[in-house]
Amino acid sequence: MGANTPSTTAGLLICEHCDTVYRRRPLSRGEVACCERCHNILERHARLGPDQLLALTFTAMVVFVQANIWPIVTLELNGRPSSATLWGTIVTMWQQHAEVVAVLAALTLFFFPMAKMLLFGWVFWFARRGERGPGFRSAMIVLHYLGPWTMSEVFVLGAMVAIVKARVYFHVVPDPGIFAYGALMLLITVFGTVDLRQLWDVTRERSR
Question: Where is the chain membrane-spanning (predicted)?
């Protein structure tokens, strides 16, 4: 099944990995449907509806803005403090001729997460009314491919390791930005458990 093709039809559930077809039944809370042939997960019980997911998306957007505005860490040496934000660090890497690392950091920590949250907000805004917004199919394709490229959790873990190691040479003070990124990491983890394919079943084409 392609990323732009729903893996569910009326009353049927199709495994994306081996194309085995199953008759679908509603899942109870906590239940997970697995393929008997290849043992991959077919579907999870949807604990969060479009309204709750839209609220989480708005929360993630607010946290995302805070994480990019607030300093991440303050280093102090000989009484001279120096604070760093994400974009300040990216610009410094670019100026130090680490262009590839700077571009990757900007894409995976800013542009990809921002695009993902905007698309989430778009599809959930219409899904709460049971409709598919304009460009719904394209948005679902982009969300499918953006999934592995939002690396806030990698950044948070790397920053924590760097803070611990930097304490040997500097007085290090974690700033609100790193905590905002930690909260964003948790929200992205929640979104990672959501099966977006179910939006095909709970929405319909908009009436013109």
Answer: 53-73, 100-127, 139-166, 178-200
Query: Do 201 and 8 contact (CB within 8 A), yes or no?
Result: yes
Where residue 24 falls (left for φ over 0; alpha for ψ -120 to 50; beta otherwise) is: beta
pTM for the structure as a whole: 0.73
Q: How does pLDDT run along the chain (208 residues), one tens digit per residue?
A: 344 444 445 567 778 778 788 877 777 776 778 888 888 877 776 677 788 889 999 999 999 999 888 888 887 777 777 788 888 888 888 998 888 988 988 888 889 889 989 999 999 999 888 888 888 889 888 988 887 777 777 777 777 777 777 777 777 788 888 888 888 888 887 877 777 777 777 777 766 5
> What DSSP letter does each residue of 171-194 carry, written as one string?
EEEE-HHHHHHHHHHHHHHHHHT-
* Count of alpha carbons within 13 angstroms of residue 73, beta-carbon side: 16
Rounded distance between C-alpha atoms, residue 14 and residue 7, angstroms: 5
Determine the straight-line distance between the first and last CA of the chain, rounded to whole angstroms.
29
